[in-house]
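[Q] Does anyone have a clean structure-token version of this?
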Amino acid sequence: MLRIVRRALYTTSVPAPLKVIAPMLEALRNTTSALFDPDRRFRQARIFHATRVALALLVSIALTTGINVPHGEWASITVLVVIGGLQHHGNIRRRAAERGVGTLIGAFVGLFLILQESYFRIPLLTYLLIAVACGYAAYHAVGKGDISRCWPALRWSSRPATATRTSMTRSGAPSMS
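[A] Here you go.
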């Protein structure tokens, strides 16, 4: 279509609407060319990621308010948690699966805490167990962020478990220790 418009511009008898449409099509092509150019997408990764997160959040808010979901703000929070820190599409499914497993584990831990509180009736014990559970989760949250580090039985990836840890040397190269 753009070629036809360009050819029409170079002929002697150009209709007036084509003179108006041609610059708009050229501007559209210039602004959307970054979407299809991998080099530009890499160089502008922050802008693409910010746009993707903002649009996903707007869609989440529109859906939850449009169909009147009670406590729909949690859907928006989930969108931010799942894709907020991820720049690449490949990580989103894994992160969503980890969030689902984490939610189930949190629900069972919460149920356990409620049951032990109703059985023992010692609030201080409940607070201590909550602190221990949060400390355990926070300890394992630092690093790769892989849920299988907390619970190896949940390891669903195909990579083998290793007994060594990798660390970074001063030069930035990984070193096995």
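[Q] Thanks! Anything notable?
[A] Confidence is low (pLDDT under 50) at residues 157-177.
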